[in-house]
C-alpha cells in the first residue's frame, strides 16, 4: 500500500527539518525524505569542529527547532534531538527520482521504486547536489565513501581514490603519508586540476607515494568479508583487468547539480544561467501549484532564513496568512517614509511606481528590499560623487535627482534609476548625483542587483538598454537628447569576449568602434611577426576609433585581457553621431593624435611589451589597484610585510617573496582589488564590500569564516586566520623585551574561529597603504592599471 | 622611479651640504682666542647639534617600525638619515677641533666614524645590490629557480632509475649531497661544497662537474643508442642544475650582504650612544 501524507518535505536540511518539525508539532501527517543517511548533508560536510554562524543576527528565529551559532557537532546534535522530541517522521536514504500528479494528489517515486502520496510538497534540497556515485556493482558497500572527513583517521590502509579533480588529488596527497594510495584516472592526464594540485600529484606519483592508474575505469567491487581486506576493487585498464584488495574506496566524482532534477518536477527557471533561481510566489510556491521551494534552492543560502521559511511554508499550506519573520525588519526599514501605509502596501507601491522592479515576483522584491536602504533626502544632498568607487544601484521612488555631468545637469524623475554604470563596469562613478525636490530613493547593493540581473531577464534587458543609451550620450553626444539617439542606440550591439579573445586584428577593415563596458583590453602591434602589446585600456574607454575616423584598416590588434563586454557602434551610426555632435570629430581626433604619439614612444621600448604581457598573464587586466615591487630597488627587508601585519592585527595580508617576477617587476601575493571581485560572489553574510574613493575591496566584521572567498579568489590573496592579541608598546618591547616584536602578535586565546583576512588598502589608516609608506627604498608601489605603462618604463 | 638618494630632488642632500659648508665657514672664521676645540661657544654649538643629530639618526630605528606614523614616508626618512648622517662626519670633526687622544672623547668619535662608514657601505649595497641581484636572476624569481631544481631532480631520478646501480647511486648521491647556503661564512663565500659518492668513495662535485664528468665518461663507453640518449638527457639536466645553483648561490650571498652591514651599523650606533653619554657627562663634571 502506498503511504499517504498531507505534507511531504524533501531534503532534511535546516529548512526541511524546520518544516517537518512544525508539521509534527501541529499533528499534520507528514514525512521528511532525506537522500543521504544523515540529516543536513551540507553541514555534515563541514570540517570537524567548524564554527557555524547564525547570520543575519538581526533576523529573529522562528522555528520549533533551536539554532544558535556554535560548533557544527553541537548544532547537528541539537537538530537531531529536536526531530526526536517532536516525533518527526523521517526517512533516510530516500532519494526522490520522480514526482507526478497535481496539487492534492502527488505521487513521489523514490530510488527504491516505492511511491509516496502527498497533498503538498516542500522542496528544500539545497544547491550542493548529491555526489556522483561510482555506478558499479557493489558501490553500496560501507567502505565506499564520497567524502573524506578527517585524514588522520586512516593509517596503514590501502585506499583507492577515484577521480581526477582537485578533491581527488587533495585527498590522495594527504592520505599518502600514512597509507598505500592508488588514484584512478579515466584519462591519461589530470586536465581538470588546478596548477598547484597538478604539481602535487605529479610529484607524488613520481616519488611513488601515490600509484596512478591512467586510462582506467572502475568495473566492480567484490566483498571479501573473510579476508584481511574487506573488498576487492576491480578496475578496467587499457591492458586488461586488475584487482586491488582495498580497505577503503573514496570516489570524488563531483556532484550532480539538483537543477535538472528540480526541472523534471515541472518547476521552471527564468533562464539558463546556473545561478538563476526558480520563480516563486510570496508564499514560496513554485509555478507548479502545491510544490513549495525553500532554502538555498529558492535563493536563501543562510541557515536561519531557511529555518524560518520551513516554519512559514507550513503555515501557508494550512492557509494561515502569517507575516514572514522578516516583517518587523522591513517595518523598521520603511517607518521613516512619509506614507501612511503598511509594509505590504508600500512594497507593492514601490513595484508599481518603479518600472524596473515591476516584473519581479513579490517574494524576490521583498528579498531585494531587505538588502536595500530607503533614503529620504533633503534637496541638494550629494548621493554620490564622480570618481567614487561605490557601486550600489539607485531607483527613484519619489521626487527627482540631478545628475551632474561636466557642466550639464540632467534631471531624473520618479520611477527612473541611476548608478547602473558603475554597477555593471565595477569602475568609478562617472557623474555626481545630487538630490532634488522631495526626493526618496532606494539604494540596492551591487550583490543583490547582480543576483537579480542573472535571475530576471526583464531587469537585465532594461538595464542593458539604458546603459547603452547613457554610454553613447555621455561619451559622444552629451548635448543630443535621448529621443534623437534612439536609432543609434537600437543599432548598437552588446558583445561579450572571453579572456584572450580578439576584438579585431591589425589589418582588418575598420567597421565599428567599441566602448568597453566591463573588463579591459590590450592594444598590440605586429613587430617582426610577433604581437607586441603596446598599452592597456580599462573599462569605460573607447577603442577602435582610430580606424573608423580615418576610414582605414585597423592599425593594431585589440585583445580582451579578462572576460570583457563592449558596446559596438558601426561606422554609419558613428557618422550620424558626428553629424549630430559637431565638436565630436575634433575631440576624437585629438584623442587619436595622443594615442599615436604614445604608440610611437612605446615602440622604441622592446622590453615594454614583454612586461605588459607578463602583467596581463598575472590577471592584472581585471585589477583596479595592485601592489608591484621594483626588484631593482627592493632590498628584501620585508618591512612592507611587517608594516601590513603591525597595522592589521598581526597578520600580513601580503607575501613579498611569493608571486611571479618578470624583469624588474615583481607581483607579490596581495589583493589587486579586481573590477568584478570573485571573492564577493559567494559570501553568505555579504561581508565583502567595495569602498568609496579608493575602491578597495574589504571584508567587514560580519565574516563567518566559511572560506568561500579564499577558495574563490583566483590569486590566492585571501587567508583564513585566527584573531590575534594587541601588541604591547614598542618601547616596552625594545627596552624590556616585553610582548612581541611589531607585527608578530600572539594568537588570541579562547574559542575563536578563523576568519578571512585580506588587503583593505589601509582604508582605516591615516596616510594610506602602510606597505608603501614603510618601504625604505621606494620599491613597493600601489599602481592602478592606467599607470602600468609608467611602471613598466622606469 | 625615484630612489631614496634622489628623494624630493635631493632635498636632504642640499640641506646637509648647506649645513656642512655654512658651519665650516664659521669654523674657519671663528677666532676663539685659544686653540679651536669643543669647549668654545662655537664648539659647544657644534657639539649640541651633533649630539641632537645622533639621537635623531638613531630614532630612525623607531620611525621605521612606527607603522602608523604619518610623519613622512620611511623612504623620505632614509634619505634624510643618509645625508644628515653624512654631514655629521663634518660637524663632529669640526667639534673636535682636530684634537684627538686616547680617551673616551676620541672613542666616541671613532665609534661614530665606524657607524657612518658602515652606513655608507649600507647605502651602497641598497643602491647597487638589488640591481646586481636582479641581473643575476635574469627574468624570474629565486623561488622559481628552487622549483626548477626540484623539477630537474625529479626528472633526473626518473631517468636514472634503470641505469647501472653504481651510476644511479652516484647520481642520487650527487643530488642528495648538493650543498647550498650553510652558515654565514659559507653563504658569503658562495663556495660550492657539494660532493658525491662513486663506488663508495667521496668526491668533490663543485658546480656538478664531478658528476657531469663521470656521466660523460660513461657516455663515451656506451654503444646502445637509447642508453646514450638517456645519458645525454641526464647530463643536460645536470647542466641546468648547475646553472640554477650558481645563480642561487650568488643570490644568497647578495641577500646576506644586504643585511650583514646592519649587524655592525646598529650595535656600533648603540655603543656610540653610550660613549657619547660618557663624553658629555665627563665634560660637564671634569672640565
Architecture overview:
The complex is a heterodimer of chains A (794) and B (287). Chain A is α+β, with helices and mostly antiparallel strands and 794 residues long. Chain A contains 23 helices and 43 strands. In chain A, strand 7 and strand 8 form a beta hairpin. In chain A, helix 4 (166-176) packs parallel to helix 5 (195-207) and helix 13 packs across helix 14 (482-491). The N and C termini of chain A lie far apart (82 Å). Chain B folds into two domains: 7-138 and 262-286, no CATH class; 146-258, no CATH class. Chain B contains ten helices and two strands. Chain B has a two-stranded antiparallel sheet with strand order 1-2. Chain B is elongated. The two termini of chain B are 52 Å apart. At the A-B interface, helix 5, helix 19, strand 37 and helix 22 of A face helix 2, helix 3, helix 4, helix 5 and helix 9 of B.
Give the terminus-to-terminus CA distance of chain B.
52 Å
Portion in helices of chain B: over 70%
**How large a portion of the residues of chain B is in β-strands, by DSSP E?**
under 5%
Q: How does the major sheet of chain A shape up? A: 7 strands, mixed
Query: How many distinct helices of chain A?
Result: 23
Number of beta strands of chain A: 43
Rg of chain B from C-alpha positions?
A: 29 Å
Helix and strand arrangement:
The complex is a heterodimer of chains A (794) and B (287).
Chain A: E1 3-10, H1 14-25, E2 30-33, H2 41-44, E3 51-52, E4 70-71, H3 72-85, E5 90-91, E6 96-102, E7 105-110, E8 115-123, E9 130-131, E10 144-145, E11 158-162, H4 166-176, E12 180-184, H5 195-207, E13 210-213, E14 217-223, E15 231-237, E16 240-246, E17 248-251, E18 255-256, H6 259-264, E19 291-293, H7 303-317, H8 327-334, H9 343-353, H10 362-371, E20 373-377, E21 382-384, E22 393-398, E23 400-405, E24 408-413, E25 417-418, H11 420-425, E26 432-435, E27 439-444, H12 446-455, H13 457-476, H14 482-491, E28 493-497, E29 502-504, E30 512-518, E31 520-527, E32 530-538, E33 542-543, H15 545-550, E34 557-560, E35 564-570, H16 571-580, H17 584-603, H18 606-617, E36 626-630, H19 639-647, E37 661-662, E38 665-666, E39 688-690, E40 697-699, H20 708-712, E41 719-721, H21 730-736, E42 755-757, H22 770-773, E43 780-783, H23 788-792
Chain B: H1 7-29, H2 41-65, H3 74-96, H4 104-137, H5 142-160, H6 165-176, H7 184-189, E1 195-198, E2 201-204, H8 209-221, H9 225-260, H10 262-286
Helix pairs in contact in B: 1-3, 2-3, 2-10, 3-4, 4-9, 4-10, 5-6, 5-9, 8-9
Amino acid at each position: 500500500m502506498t503511504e499517504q501524507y498531507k505534507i511531504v518535505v524533501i531534503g532534511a536540511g535546516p529548512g526541511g527539518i524546520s518544516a517537518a518539525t512544525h508539521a509534527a508539532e501541529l499533528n499534520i501527517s507528514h514525512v521528511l525524505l532525506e537522500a543521504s543517511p544523515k540529516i543536513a548533508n551540507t553541514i555534515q560536510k563541514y570540517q570537524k569542529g567548524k564554527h557555524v554562524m547564525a547570520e543575519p543576527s538581526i533576523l529573529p528565529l522562528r522555528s520549533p527547532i533551536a539554532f544558535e551559532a556554535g560548533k557544527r557537532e553541537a548544532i547537528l546534535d541539537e537538530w537531531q534531538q529536536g526531530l526526536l522530541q517532536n516525533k518527526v517522521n523521517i526517512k533516510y536514504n530516500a532519494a526522490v527520482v520522480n514526482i507526478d500528479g497535481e496539487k492534492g494528489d502527488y505521487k513521489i517515486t523514490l530510488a527504491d521504486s516505492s511511491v509516496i502520496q502527498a497533498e503538498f510538497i516542500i522542496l528544500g534540497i539545497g544547491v550542493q547536489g548529491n555526489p556522483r556515485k561510482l555506478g558499479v556493482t557493489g558501490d553500496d558497500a560501507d567502505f565506499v565513501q564520497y567524502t573524506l572527513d578527517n585524514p588522520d583517521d586512516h593509517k596503514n590502509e590501502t585506499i583507492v581514490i577515484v577521480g581526477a579533480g582537485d578533491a581527488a588529488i587533495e585527498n590522495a596527497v594527504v592520505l599518502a603519508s600514512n597509507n598505500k594510495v592508488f588514484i584512478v584516472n579515466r584519462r591519461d592526464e589530470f586536465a581538470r586540476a588546478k596548477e598547484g594540485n597538478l604539481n602535487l600529484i605529479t610529484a607524488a606519483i613520481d616519488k611513488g607515494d601515490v600509484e596512478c592508474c591512467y586510462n582506467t575505469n572502475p568495473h566492480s567491487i567484490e566483498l571479501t568479508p573473510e579476508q584481511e581486506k574487506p573488498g576487492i576493487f576491480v578496475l578496467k585498464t587499457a591492458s586488461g583487468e586488475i584487482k586491488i584488495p582495498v580497505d577503503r574506496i573514496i570516489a570524488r566524482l563531483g556532484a550532480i547539480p539538483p537543477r535538472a532534477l528540480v526541472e523534471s518536477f515541472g518547476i521552471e527557471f527564468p533562464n539558463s544561467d546556473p545561478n538563476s533561481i526558480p520563480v516563486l510566489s510570496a508564499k514560496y510556491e513554485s509555478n507548479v501549484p502545491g510544490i513549495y521551494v525553500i532554502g538555498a534552492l529558492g535563493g536563501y543560502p543562510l541557515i536561519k532564513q531557511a529555518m524560518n521559511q520551513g516554519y512559514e511554508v507550513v503555515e501557508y499550506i494550512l492557509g494561515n496568512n502569517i507575516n514572514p519573520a522578516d516583517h518587523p525588519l522591513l517595518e523598521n526599514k520603511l517607518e521613516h517614509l512619509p506614507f501612511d501605509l503598511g509594509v505590504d502596501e508600500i512594497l507593492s507601491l514601490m513595484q508599481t511606481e518603479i518600472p524596473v522592479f515591476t516584473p519581479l515576483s513579490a517574494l524576490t522584491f521583498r528579498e531585494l528590499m531587505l538588502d536595500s536602504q530607503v533614503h529620504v533626502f533633503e534637496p541638494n544632498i550629494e548621493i554620490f560623487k564622480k570618481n567614487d568607487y561605490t557601486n550600489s544601484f539607485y531607483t527613484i521612488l519619489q521626487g527627482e535627482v540631478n545628475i551632474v555631468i561636466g557642466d550639464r545637469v540632467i534631471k531624473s524623475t520618479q520611477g527612473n534609476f541611476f548608478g547602473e554604470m558603475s554597477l555593471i563596469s565595477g569602475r568609478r562613478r562617472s557623474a555626481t548625483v545630487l538630490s532634488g525636490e522631495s526626493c526618496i530613493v532606494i539604494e540596492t547593493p551591487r550583490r543583490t542587483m547582480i543576483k537579480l540581473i542573472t535571475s530576471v531577464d526583464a531587469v537585465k534587458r532594461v538595464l542593458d538598454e539604458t546603459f547603452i543609451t547613457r554610454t553613447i550620450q555621455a561619451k559622444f553626444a552629451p548635448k543630443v537628447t535621448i529621443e534623437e539617439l534612439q536609432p543609434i542606440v537600437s543599432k548598437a550591439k552588446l558583445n561579450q569576449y572571453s579572456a584572450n579573445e580578439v576584438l579585431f586584428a591589425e589589418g582588418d577593415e575598420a567597421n565599428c568602434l567599441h566602448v568597453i563596458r566591463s573588463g579591459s583590453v590590450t592594444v598590440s602591434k605586429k613587430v617582426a611577426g610577433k604581437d607586441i602589446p603596446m598599452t592597456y585600456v580599462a573599462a569605460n574607454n573607447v577603442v577602435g576609433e582610430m580606424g573608423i575616423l580615418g576610414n582605414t584598416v585597423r592599425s593594431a590588434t585589440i585583445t580582451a585581457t579578462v572576460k570583457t563586454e563592449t558596446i559596438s557602434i558601426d561606422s554609419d551610426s558613428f557618422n550620424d553621431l558626428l553629424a549630430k555632435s559637431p565638436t565630436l570629430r575634433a575631440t576624437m581626433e585629438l584623442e587619436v593624435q595622443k594615442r599615436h604619439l604614445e604608440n610611437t614612444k612605446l615602440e622604441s621600448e622592446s622590453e615594454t611589451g614583454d612586461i605588459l604581457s607578463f602583467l596581463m598573464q598575472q590577471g592584472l587586466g581585471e585589477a583596479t589597484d595592485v601592489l608591484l615591487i621594483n626588484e631593482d630597488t627592493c632590498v628584501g627587508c620585508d618591512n612592507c610585510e611587517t608594516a601590513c601585519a603591525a597595522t592589521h592585527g598581526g597578520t600580513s595580508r601580503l607575501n613579498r617573496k611569493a608571486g611571479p617576477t618578470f624583469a624588474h617587476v615583481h607581483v607579490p601575493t596581495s589583493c589587486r582589488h579586481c573590477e568584478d571581485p570573485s571573492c564577493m560572489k559567494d559570501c553568505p553574510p555579504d561581508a565583502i564590500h567595495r569602498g568609496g574613493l579608493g575602491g578597495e575591496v574589504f571584508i567587514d566584521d560580519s565574516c563567518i569564516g566559511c572560506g568561500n572567498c579564499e577558495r574563490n579568489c583566483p590569486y590566492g590573496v585571501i587567508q583564513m586566520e585566527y584573531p590575534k592579541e594587541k601588541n604591547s608598546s614598542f618601547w616596552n618591547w625594545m627596552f624590556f623585551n616585553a610582548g612581541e616584536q611589531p607585527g608578530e602578535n600572539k594568537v588570541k586565546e579562547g574559542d575563536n574561529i578563523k576568519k578571512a583576512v585580506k588587503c583593505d588598502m589601509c582604508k582605516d589608516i591615516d596616510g594610506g597603504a602602510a606597505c608603501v609608506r614603510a618601504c625604505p627604498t621606494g620599491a613597493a608601489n600601489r599602481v592602478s592599471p592606467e599607470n602600468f605603462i609608467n611602471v613598466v618604463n622606469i | 622611479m625615484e630612489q631614496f638618494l634622489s628623494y624630493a630632488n635631493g632635498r636632504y642632500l642640499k640641506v646637509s651640504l648647506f649645513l656642512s659648508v655654512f658651519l665650516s665657514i664659521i669654523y674657519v672664521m671663528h677666532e676663539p682666542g685659544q686653540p679651536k676645540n669643543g669647549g668654545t661657544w662655537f664648539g659647544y654649538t657644534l657639539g649640541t647639534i651633533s649630539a641632537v643629530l645622533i639621537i635623531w639618526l638613531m630614532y630612525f630605528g623607531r620611525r621605521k617600525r612606527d607603522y602608523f606614523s604619518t610623519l613622512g614616508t620611511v623612504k623620505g626618512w632614509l634619505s634624510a638619515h643618509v645625508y644628515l648622517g653624512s654631514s655629521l662626519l663634518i660637524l663632529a670633526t669640526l667639534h673636535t677641533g682636530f684634537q684627538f687622544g686616547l680617551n673616551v672623547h676620541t672613542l666616541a668619535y671613532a665609534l661614530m666614524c665606524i657607524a657612518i662608514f658602515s652606513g655608507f657601505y649600507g647605502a651602497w649595497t641598497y643602491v647597487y645590490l638589488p640591481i646586481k641581484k636582479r641581473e643575476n636572476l635574469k627574468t624570474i624569481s629565486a623561488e622559481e629557480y628552487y622549483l626548477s631544481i626540484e623539477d630537474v631532480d625529479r626528472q633526473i631520478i626518473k631517468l636514472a632509475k634503470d641505469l647501472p646501480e653504481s651510476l644511479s647511486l652516484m647520481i642520487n648521491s650527487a643530488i642528495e649531497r648538493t650543498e647550498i647556503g650553510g652558515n654565514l661564512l659559507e653563504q658569503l663565500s658562495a663556495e660550492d661544497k657539494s660532493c658525491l659518492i662513486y663506488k663508495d668513495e667521496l668526491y668533490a662535485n663543485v658546480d656538478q662537474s664531478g658528476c657531469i664528468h663521470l656521466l660523460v665518461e660513461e657516455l663515451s663507453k656506451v654503444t646502445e643508442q637509447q642508453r646514450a640518449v638517456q645519458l645525454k638527457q641526464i647530463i643536460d639536466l645536470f647542466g641546468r642544475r648547475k646553472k640554477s645553483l650558481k645563480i642561487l648561490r650568488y643570490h644568497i650571498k647578495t641577500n646576506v650582504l644586504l643585511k650583514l652591514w646592519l649587524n655592525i651599523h646598529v650595535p656600533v650606533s648603540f655603543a656610540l650612544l653610550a660613549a657619547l653619554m660618557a663624553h658629555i657627562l665627563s665634560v660637564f663634571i671634569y672640565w
